[in-house]
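Data availability (excerpt). All sequences and predicted token strings are deposited with the supplementary files. A representative entry, F-ATPase gamma subunit, is shown inline so that the format can be inspected without opening the archive.
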Amino acid sequence: PNFDLQLLTLLVTRRLKSIKNIQKITKSMKMVSAAKYARAERELKPARIYGTGALALYEKAEIKAPEDKKKHLLIGVSSDRGLCGAIHTSIAKTLKNEITNLSNAGKEVMVVGVGDKIRGLLQRTHGNYFLMTFKEVGRRPPSFGDASVIASELLNSGYEFDEGSVIYNRFRSVISYKTDEKPIYSFETVAGSGK
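Structure token line:
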């Protein structure tokens, strides 16, 4: 019986030591995550100006694509990797609904995927709608250079759309995102708006 008690004490001691080590690792991971979050938030603030500026332009100019226009472009923005499925699937679900609604309305729809996750989620069921995909976009802080590469590739693709939408997740808090949609218009649509 004394031997069993010593063995049990040894097992409990090892388990406690293991738990303390796991707690140390978890604490370190929390600190790293907090630092990454603070850096990402700091880097995002200057980039937000570009999005709000473009949206204000569309609202002030009252740009609307004519109803008879048939070509619609959807740009889905996700990430290349990550385990948080709800973030990616909400964008994919919105894209699927938009593809269905626009196709039923007789419009030609093409999709541009920014981030590998969106391509992976839609490739099997909606792969024929993809015009192009982009990977490794969010590796560095967002910049005008990244956006201009995507815009150049899109302009050089030969696909002439009339209007489109950018579908992305808007950050609300550390644990909450809201899937949002912003309009984009072709050069011809903007030039023909009259304002």
